[in-house]
Amino acid sequence: RLMATMVMMMESLVGLEHKYIYEIIGHSGESDWLPFVKMGEAPKDRVERYAVIEAMTDHAATARSGDNTLSAGVKAVQEIVKHEADDFFVFLVSDANLRGYGISPQDLAMALTGEERVN
Fold first, then answer.
1. What number of CA atoms fall less than 13 Å from residue 106's CA on the CB side?
2. How far is it, in rounded angstroms, from Cα 24 to Cα 42?
3. Integer CA distances (angstroms), 30 to 34, 59, 67, in order
4. Structure confidence by residue, pLDDT tens digits, 25-76
5. Of the four listed, 18, 39, 84, 109, which is most buried by Cβ atoms within 10 Å?
6. Interior CA angle at 12 toward 10 and 16, to 5°?
């Protein structure tokens, strides 16, 4: 489902590169920052988009268990405002059992609302 979501995100922004810039950063039990698409370097065609999904799949197949959802969210919010933009959005997608890692909805909300310029 995560891969399908990323495909939909990338496909929906095709042709809108003049209006939106984005990056796709993954997180896993090993890291809270795995760049799959760098800011302003959107995949140009289906082959490049497939390569992004393949890299995500490869990492997921070998990553150790654990979760870095909260630290990934905090870092994403901190990093995005370093770029020049009219609006900032962070979409945090995770398949982790957050409750199993002791992460509450309030913890997640705090991680994503630490910077007032980020929607």
1. 1
2. 9
3. 9, 10, 8
4. 999 989 999 999 999 999 999 999 999 999 999 999 999 888 899 999 999 9
5. 39
6. 95
Length of the chain: 119
CA angle 29, 30, 35 (to 5 degrees): 110
